[in-house]
Specification:
elongated
Length: 79
């Protein structure tokens, strides 16, 4: 019976058994894609702001420049 709670429970159980190795790996090594998504966002913003670059080399140089850690998050030192 598809509408029963027991069917839903067994279906979820089968699904989690198939993905057990991935679930345990995530619990042990909690890796986040936040930094990668943030950098992708910087690339999208640079592409949007600088529409019409002279050539691809200039754009890829800008991406390399943005990948420098001091440019991404400058330290706030008081002089």
């Amino acid at each position: 019976m598809k509408g029963s709670l027991l069917f839903t429970f067994t279906q979820n159980s089968r699904r989690s058994q198939k993905r057990l190795s991935g679930l345990t790996a995530h619990a042990i090594y909690s890796i986040s894609t936040g930094k990668l998504e943030g950098f992708n966002n910087k690339i999208k913003v640079a592409k949007r702001i600088g529409y019409g670059y002279r050539d691809d080399d200039f754009f890829f140089t800008l991406i390399r420049y943005l990948s420098i850690s001091s440019v991404r998050s400058p330290s706030h030192k008081k002089s």
